[in-house]
Amino acid sequence: MADNYIKAELGRIFKQIAKWKGFEIKAWHIGDEHIHMIIIVPPKYSISYIIGIVKSKSSSWIKKKTKKIPSGSFWARGYFVTTVGIDEMIVRKYVENQQHHQIELPTLFD
Prior knowledge:
alpha+beta, Alpha-Beta Plaits, globular
């Protein structure tokens, strides 16, 4: 299981980035191996720009905060994005209940 300190720091960093760039995080789940987020992005930003900022800033900040992270890339290269509309509540519940869907896998922090 990933270090709870790192998960808490990522949450704090995501909130700061959202405030700085003016987007809203509606729901999230920080798992051991991946993260789900529902965000509202202002039209002045592209999705790729926001994801790039979130990944680059959180990576550099978390590496400065802890020595547990090995050198190299913190985040995987890709990401998945989709839009939600009428089904937003279903997607939000899915994101918020991710801990019930996770299975135990070997992790970087074991």
